[in-house]
Amino acid sequence: MTMRVLSVASEAVPLVKTGGLADVVGALPGAVAGEGVAITTLLPGFPSVLRAVRRAKEVHSWPSLLGVPARLLMGKLGEHPLLVLDAPGLYQRDGTPYCDMTGQDWPDNWRRFCALGRAAADVAGGAVVLPAKGKGAATALSFDLVHAHDWQAAMACAYIALAPYGDGPPLPSVLTIHNMAFQGQFGPEVFPQLGLPRTAWSMHGVEYYGGFGMLKAGLYCADAITTVSPTYAREIRDPRFGMGLEGLIEGRGDVVSGILNGIDSAIWNPEIDETIAATYSVRTLARRSANKRALEKAFGLDKDEGPLFIVVSRLTWQKGMDVLPDVLDRLVEMGGRLAVLGNGDALLEMRLRDAAARHPGRIGVRIGYDEALSHLMQAGGDAILVPSRFEPCGLTQLYALAYGCVPVVARTGGLADTVIDANPAALAAGVATGLQIDKVDAGCLVEVLGRAIALYRDAPTWKRIQRNGMACDFSWRASGRAYADLYRSLIA
């Protein structure tokens, strides 16, 4: 019997993306389809989403959804059902899904994403009833379980538990934490506008240190909590990673688990990738050099047979990027080069540009994001730097492994779960796939860069590390099975 799951999120590729959350939400329906699970995804009606579903059919309307008129549209996300919450007063704005044009959070983000949660609870609980003529769609709106992602969707779990629709037992719900650092915290004055019973304002509901916490509410109310890697599921019980919620996680430890993210091998596959200069496989690594030459040209770097490091990242403290400018002079002295693609902290952007100006032909920097260029970087770079201070899962290092770009990572979260350090034992056993550091500071980063350069100069060893990484299976196959098993356990 097919399980029907409503997946609720603020973004999903290819419709709207600001980070890895979108990749996961977009891939999940296909990942579990072979396990007898049919996922319908519910997204906010951001401009890019509505442009992509112009032929979507209206299946429900709310005269007032938390004070705003809204309607529900049904379309497709690839081959899978899609629901779009079309509320122009909430989502039709310039800027990003979460911020205005100046980078400031929208002050009514609480309303924008509580409305998403309320709509999800209405759909899942049966408050949304389709007209009889929608026979084909009606079955898609009957669900066995709700899967919410991050703080933007966490209130779906809270509404289901605290303000259920109808007399039957509420549907089970799963909340996946993609990044505990973002929690959706607001002042207590918004509570009367949430449409929740007064009893919900407590530590056993939505109250969080005198304010309103969206992620906290979802974590308290969800029947199961997952993170995007097993190590991160353990780390968030520690104050260093729990961001104030470690006590709640520890108290709910019996329902917390980690399921590693996968990558879409139809998109991230060097054998068929049309965005790179030359396709290749683990058996034809020599063809990879054409991508290195193309990458050098794209960043204005000298043609060189020495190691070319890459960074594809948000330029933030979390990603360890504040340490990177401190080691670049040393990297160039050791014979390395660097290509950087990303944006974020203005001071970090300026320091990286300054480094590029000091070392023309050795360091190249592109501020912004370019999906096609990121593929070329993975295909042409020799090693990728991911020195994150915390990393729930990380997808960049998984893409790198698939493309034979050796990851140099911090030993945390999903980075620790997916990269095997090239220490003497791992090299002797022939299982190393990258390099790890235990501490994110300039000294450790210089040391690991030296290790990487020494290994690169040992061509047979470096190729073995590349091939080990390319042989890893980080497709959604195992992760999809794990999610399906979790769904079954909750429904049973």
From TrEMBL:
Catalytic activity field: [(1->4)-alpha-D-glucosyl](n) + ADP-alpha-D-glucose = [(1->4)-alpha-D-glucosyl](n+1) + ADP + H(+)
Residues annotated as domain Starch synthase catalytic: 4-250
Entry's EC annotation: 2.4.1.21
UniProt xrefs under InterPro entries: Glyco_trans_1 (IPR001296), GS/SS (IPR011835), Starch_synth_cat_dom (IPR013534)
Top-rank lineage group of the source organism: Bacteria
GO CC list: cytosol
Pathway it works in: Glycan biosynthesis; glycogen biosynthesis
Enzymatic class: transferase
Claim: Transferase is one of the keywords in the record: yes
Entry keyword annotation includes Glycoprotein: no
Residues bound to ADP-alpha-D-glucose: K17
CDD domains assigned: GT5_Glycogen_synthase_DULL1-like (cd03791)
UniProt keyword list: Glycogen biosynthesis, Glycosyltransferase, Transferase
Protein family membership: Belongs to the glycosyltransferase 1 family. Bacterial/plant glycogen synthase subfamily.
NCBIfam families, A to Z: glgA, PRK00654.1-2
Its job: Synthesizes alpha-1,4-glucan chains using ADP-glucose.
Protein name per the record: Glycogen synthase
Organism from which the protein derives: Novosphingobium aureum
Gene this chain is encoded by: glgA
